[in-house]
Amino acid sequence: MATNKKPVRIDALLLDTTSAQAKVSQRRRMNFNFHDHPSARIQRMLNAMEPGTYIRPHKHENPDKLEVFFCLRGSFAVVIFDDTGAIIDLEILNPLEGRYGVEIGPGTWHCLVALEAGSVAYEVKDGPYDVAVDKNFALWAPREDTPEAGYWVNNLIKIIQER
């Protein structure tokens, strides 16, 4: 079915606006969704993230979901963990260095770490989105709303910088 919906332009103004919202957000990140509803079978969004935001390591399974990140601006570390929380892979995304994106398969423990102010990623993930089953959070990593979360992400940044 064809629609006459206007295209959404991904330009500096959209990135700047979403980044400005992330900077003042308590969580230091902000999404801009392109999909119209959580039930969409493909979820597409901008993720503007500031250094210090904490994304608890998680995986997408039951139902399995594929996730893809493209770095539009700034830089990110995509960290892959084993079942015990040991880092088994690390990819730095930075478009200025020709490292644009990464695809993460279902059932893979991972997190994203913003390495520069104003970093923005374009994310594509299988839908639909249901908060109750979207992510399986790692029990070996602190919950987002705890004091340990800040310590954990700062320690992870030190490990990333040493590699």
Characterization of this structure:
This protein has 163 residues and is an alpha+beta fold. The protein has one domain (12-162): Sandwich (Jelly Rolls), CATH 2.60.120. Helix content is 18%, strand content 34%. It is built from two helices and ten strands. It has helices at residues 12-24, 147-162; strands spanning 29-33, 42-49, 58-59, 67-73, 76-81, 87-93, 101-104, 109-114, 119-126, 136-137. The protein has a five-stranded antiparallel sheet. Strands 6-5-8 form a three-stranded antiparallel sheet, covered by helices on one side. A hairpin with an 8-residue loop joins strand 1 (29-33) and strand 2. The longest helix is centred in the C-terminal third of the chain and has 16 residues, at 147-162.
Brief characterization of the structure:
By secondary structure, the protein is of the alpha+beta class.
Descriptors:
single chain, Jelly Rolls, 18% helix, 163 residues
CATH architecture: Sandwich
CATH homologous superfamily heading: Jelly Rolls
Q: Which sequence of SSEs, written as H and E, runs from N to C? A: HEEEEEEEEEEH
Number of helices: 2
CATH class: Mainly Beta
Q: What share of the residues does DSSP label as strand, in percent?
A: 25-35%
Give me the oligomer status: single chain
Mean pLDDT: 94
Largest beta-sheet characterization: 5 strands, antiparallel
Can you tell me the overall shape?
Answer: globular
Q: Could you estimate the helical fraction of the residues in percent?
A: 10-25%
> If you compute it from the alpha carbons, what radius of gyration comes out, rounded to the nearest whole angstrom?
16 Å
